[in-house]
Every structure is written in structure tokens, then in C-alpha cells.
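Known limitations

Files may contain more than one protein. Parsers should not assume a single record per file. Below, a two-record file is shown to illustrate correct handling: read the sequence, read the C-alpha cell line, then continue until end of file.
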Amino acid sequence: MTSRRGSFGGRHQSLPSFVRAGVQPGDRVYPVRVFRRRMWVLGSMEVARLLEYETVGEHLETEDHLRLVHWKPLKAGCVSEVLVGPPGTPLDFGTAVPGDVLSTLTYRSRRSERRIKHVVDGEPRYAASVHGIYRLAPASADALEALVVGRPRR
């Protein structure tokens, strides 16, 4: 889950861990969602720090910490990590990833690269194909960045 200044992770499958995924300062994150057979990129943010939710108040300015505390349902949802960074792009639920871009999006691991699974005719068949935290291949990260930076301001 992402806010204007932070993203949240945890220990459970429904909220994967940024620590276990190897997210580090300098990485850029792209929250996505799948809805009605389309994948939507919600924005992007560069990671400055990864903090434990329990101690985040010791590291954030008072104003930012108060915003986080206002999101009390996060703690009930097993959040244990917060990614903090400068404001990224505004969150927006209106940027669909075009089918030709989705068909070529590629994840990168230490061992190999692979395309997103279960994409048929430019449509994701299962949301599980993008559920989690994955490192994108550079060309795929560039494609998502072009979508979120190039969208019209509302």
C-alpha cells in the first residue's frame, strides 16, 4: 500500500515484506492493481529509507508521523514496515497499463528474467500474477515510469 510519502509492507502474504524482497534506498517502487482485466499503475516513489512501523515516529518529522498515525487501520492490517521517500508522483487510479506494455513487462531475479504470467491478449487473467514485490527489468521500469510521469495532471 502506498501514500504520497510512504509505502507499507508486512509479514503476511497479503502484505509482503519489503525487507525480504530486498528493497533498498534508491529503489523506485510502482504500486499496481488489477481491476476489470486491466493492470493500473498508481504512481511511483523513490525509496529513501525503510523503517519499522513501531519506531517510525522516532525518524519522521512530526507532521509526517501524524499523517501516518491517522491511518490507524494500517496497524490492524499487520503492517510492520514503512518505505519513506520524497513525494513521488501523485497517487492516481486512472492510469491503465496498455496491453502491449503489459505483455512485455519483465521481472528480474538473481537467476533470470521472466515476463508477467497469465497475460493473454494484453490482459491480466489473474491478479496473483502481480501480487507481491518484484524487481522490474530496467526497460519495464522505464515503461511504467513513462506512464506515471506522462499522465495529465488532474
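...continuing to the second record:
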Amino acid sequence: MIVREYEEDEITVHKLPLYMMGAVAVFCVALTSAVSLGFVDRTAIAHDVRAAEGVTSVSQRSLKFYDEADGSVRVEDASTRDEVARFGVGYGGFVRSTLRSLVHERRIRGIGAATPFDLIEWSDGSLSLQDSTTNESIELGSFGPDNRAVFAAMLKEETR
């Protein structure tokens, strides 16, 4: 039988990084609790900021989104039923993920797909996709100019 001595191979962990990680975790929990309990005001809620600054809607379009049998997503104007855009398989990932979050909220509340989503361009240049049934809103400019441009193209009547 061979007996080995591992005394010199022993791994030691310094305590300072562990203390620092613990301090960051405690700070995050404390800050989150302070906001949740109302000790710190929530900031940058787009609806409230727009109301305070008097920002108005410049253009608006009600859109319906459909999953097609071939895996594509078809976007149509809710009032005219004209096709606004179509995203094939592997394309329109931002559109798909944005809708997935809004549709998820509808499913949680047991709301169907009858009500269209509202795509709104505001006088301050921002663009949002709103669901009037759940009062959820996604600020599309927060995801970069390229992703915003995908939805901005859907506002134009001649877009196909």
C-alpha cells in the first residue's frame, strides 16, 4: 500500500474575496429592498416621464402578429388587415423575443390574442410597443438603433 502525503498540496482560499462577494450580495439585496419598500423612488418609468414632460403621440399603428405554419411571423395592420412585414425562420429575432414577453403576460392573465398591440412613436423620438389589455409597454429604443429600426419600419404605410 502506498501512502501519500498531501500536506504541501493543500489548497487554501483567501477570505478577502469571499467577504467582498458577500458584501456585494448584501448590498444588492438591501438596495432592492429599499426600492421595493418605498425608501428609494423608482426612476425612469417611461409613462410617468412622458406625462410629466407633456410628450404626445406622433404616429400610432395597431398591429397583429401571427405565427405561420412554415415558422415565419406575419405582421399585419389590425384595421386594414394588410401585411406590414414578414419574418422568415432565422430572421426577426428581436421581434419574436419582444412579442414573446408580451404574449407571456397575456397568457398569465388568461387573455387571448383578439386585441392588437399598439406601436407608438412619441414626439420625443422614442418608440414603444404597448399592450392595452395588460398595460405592459416595451421601450424599443432601449435595445439599440438597429432593433428600433425594425419596428419603426412597421409604422410606415408603404412598408411591406
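Parsers that stop after the first record will miss the second one. For reference, the second record is described as follows. The helical segments are 15-36, 46-53, 93-109, 145-152.
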